[in-house]
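Record type: monomer structure entry
Structure origin: computed from sequence
Chain ID: A
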Amino acid sequence: MKTLFFIIIIIIVSSFIFAKFNNRSSLLAGMKDFFRWLAYFLGWKPDFNYNLILSYEEASTWVTDLKKLLLDPDLLSCLFNDWDGILALNIDYIGFSYLIKEKSCIERKKAIIRSLCRFYRKQRNISIDRGKLFFQSFTDDSFELWIPVNQHGIDLIVKLRKERKQKKI
């Protein structure tokens, strides 16, 4: 009985520590982080990078940060496709702000990606490889940004990029 009580105390204290260090809002989120770390420490390597998966609320917070670049941005969807290993953010907006209106399409995409990377660095304290992010569509009033969360997602994006290059040639 004392051993069980000791294990429960260790889990609760560890959950509190993980919640504080990972800027989580609840003890339950800290407990999930602790068990994920414990599984990783014991040799289990997860397929997904769970730190890259955003909830709708977190994605909405990033969209409010995008107001510096876009006029009236609106998050239409934040969908995680676990089969493909892709987190898709679909964002609608009126146009670009005066800061990047005169820039090329590539520079506009880079500005949006920098904003997302800055958001992950501030919120999750992780860095994203900018080369892995993929714009499935990009128009003057909307875009869909894909974030790969596992190797299968990265492979899918590489395949789609090759197809796009072949179509351009």
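Annotation 1: The CA atoms of residues 52 and 98 lie 30 Å apart.
Annotation 2: The chain has five helices and six strands.
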